[in-house]
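Quick review question:
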């Protein structure tokens, strides 16, 4: 089995970060994600990947420093977890999760945000359920918080109350919120603005620039969220065809 590489300030310039490796249109976002990662290491953020040129990696962070609106002191939060292509079904997901669990020694547990059903760019809850995780909390319309608790002490992890409204403060037209925690968002937010403008749709862009802003977000998912007249529509990165189906049909 291939070895695991942990990214650090010393090697991040020389190592790839798995996502958008060959996607030239996302080159700016790819570098923005690297810059974002470099700023998170001081807060205990971990990025571990299989030593291959593919999407086989896990990212996790102490929940207190996560760019996610959760209350989960002394827990690790899995921020992104991806095993794709020919690497599926070979035990690599299990191996990466074991890395996280080992680093969680001394913590009260590990949590992850999923969808009620499989959602694009989000972890599949079925994998975690098989690993002994349990459902801890939900938020509309389909977000779930799963966790593996090592201790009964302290409060049970939960989404912040502010993340359960399903609405943002921008009530006129479309609104998209995003961070650089995903290398695809910079390009696709620009593309969303282009498409919306071409269709005569008003659109507002809000980039979450700090963990404090992300932890105060109105949805449990912060990488990319789209709203219409204040109401949540999707966390799915939209193609032009999908945009037309949702907003122009």
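Suggested answer, residue by residue:
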């Amino acid at each position: 089995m291939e070895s695991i590489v942990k990214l650090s300030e010393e090697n991040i310039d020389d190592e790839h970060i798995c996502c958008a490796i060959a996607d030239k249109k996302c080159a700016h976002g790819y570098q923005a994600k690297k810059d974002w990662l470099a700023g998170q290491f001081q807060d205990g953020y971990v990025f571990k990947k299989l030593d291959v040129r593919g999407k086989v990696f896990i990212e996790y962070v102490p929940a207190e420093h996560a760019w996610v609106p959760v209350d989960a002191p002394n827990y690790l939060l899995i921020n992104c977890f991806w095993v794709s292509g020919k690497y599926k079904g070979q035990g690599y997901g299990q191996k990466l999760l074991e890395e996280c669990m080992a680093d969680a020694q001394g913590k009260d547990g590990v949590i992850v945000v999923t969808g009620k059903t499989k959602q694009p760019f989000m972890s599949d809850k079925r994998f975690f359920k098989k690993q002994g995780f349990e459902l801890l909390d939900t938020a509309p319309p389909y977000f779930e918080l799963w966790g593996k608790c090592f201790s009964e002490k302290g409060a049970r992890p939960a989404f912040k109350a502010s993340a359960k409204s399903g609405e943002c403060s921008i009530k006129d037209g479309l609104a998209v919120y995003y961070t650089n925690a995903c290398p695809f968002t910079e390009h696709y937010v620009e593309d969303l603005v282009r498409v919306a403008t071409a269709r005569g749709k008003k659109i507002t862009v809000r980039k979450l620039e700090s963990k404090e802003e992300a932890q105060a977000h109105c949805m449990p998912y912060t990488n990319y969220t789209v709203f219409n007249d204040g109401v949540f529509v999707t966390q799915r990165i939209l193609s032009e065809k999908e945009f037309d189906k949702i907003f122009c049909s």
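Why it works: The first helix runs from residue 27 to 40. The domain at 4-162 is CATH 3.40.630.30 (Aminopeptidase).
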